[in-house]
Specification:
Elements lengths: L2 H21 L1 H10 L1 H33 L1
Helix pairs in contact: 1-2, 1-3, 2-3
């Protein structure tokens, strides 16, 4: 896995979590401020999902790139 894939997944997940807390402060905002474990799970779960799809996308792009040459 390339470092760029990891960085993109990290920033996409951070934006997703921040947007979720900003859009639904009555649900996610209170839970995030009251329980630090919830904040960790709120970030870690989506991060691995986004990282998995980014990794699959990277593999597809690399195969298409090699096929093009």
């Amino acid at each position: 896995m390339k470092w760029v894939t990891f960085a993109i997944a990290f920033f996409l997940t951070a934006a997703l979590v921040i947007a979720g807390v900003a859009l639904y402060p009555e649900v996610l905002g209170q839970a995030a401020s009251a329980n630090n474990d919830f904040v960790f799970a709120l970030f870690l779960g989506p991060f691995f999902v986004v990282l998995f799809f980014a990794w699959l996308g990277e593999k597809v792009v690399i195969r298409l790139w090699k096929k093009k040459e």
